[in-house]
Amino acid sequence: MSNEIVTPTAAENPPAAPTLSPEDVVEQLRTLRSHIGEITPLTTAQRKVLRSSAKASNDVLQASINVINAAGLVEQAVGQPAAEVRDLLEEANRWTAVEDELRALLNGVAGANLIRRQRVAFVSGRAYVVGAALARDPAHAVLVPHVQEIRRLKRLSHRKKAQTPGPAPAGTETSAQPKP
């Protein structure tokens, strides 16, 4: 048995990849988006309609494609050969992997950002408590206006928002003139 210490070499321990700034990530995402052929933003209503009409399983879709392939008359009625429809289905299935990866990436970024905001909230809360305690001492009077501003902002954030008047209900008068 030997008592020598083994240190990993550079080949065994490659340097970490550089971390991108948020601005760099946005730039790379925009570049990536420009290289993807079809990107179609949909409204929530449009997405709901399309999801409800595209609920068929892969087995049902394959069997339907087989119907196109079985009779030339069906292919004419549909307007596309079975091979093209099969390619379209395969492409849609391959893009679901991209969807899953992007969703996982978004979830990870959102989680990390939530943790960052929580850390900032914790530190700022601690700063307020320490600042408020020190502001009671005349030697730290410079902190008084800062603590007062934080208190004012906190009160404003806890206040209920004033309700904006909406359109008058049907059948009500909106005129300022009194009734005769």
In short:
This protein has 180 residues and is mostly helical. Helix content is 63%, strand content 0%.
Share of helix, binned:
55-70%
Coarse structural class:
mainly alpha
**Which spans of ≥5 residues are poorly predicted at pLDDT below 50?**
none
| Strand content range | under 5%
The rough form would be described as flat
| Number of helical elements | 6
Mean pLDDT: 85
The Rg value, from CA coordinates, equals: 31 Å
Distance between the termini: 110 Å
Number of strands: 0
Which series of helices and strands comes N to C?
Answer: HHHHHH
Structure description:
The protein has a domain at 56-158. The protein is 63% helix and 0% strand. It is built from 6 helices and no strands. It has helices at 22-35, 44-53, 58-70, 72-78, 82-135, 144-158. Helix 3 (58-70) crosses helix 4 (72-78) and helix 5 crosses helix 6 (144-158). It is flat. The mean pLDDT is 85.
List keywords for this structure.
mainly alpha, flat
Helices and strands, with pairings:
Blueprint: H1 22-35, H2 44-53, H3 58-70, H4 72-78, H5 82-135, H6 144-158
Helix pairs in contact: 3-4, 3-5, 5-6
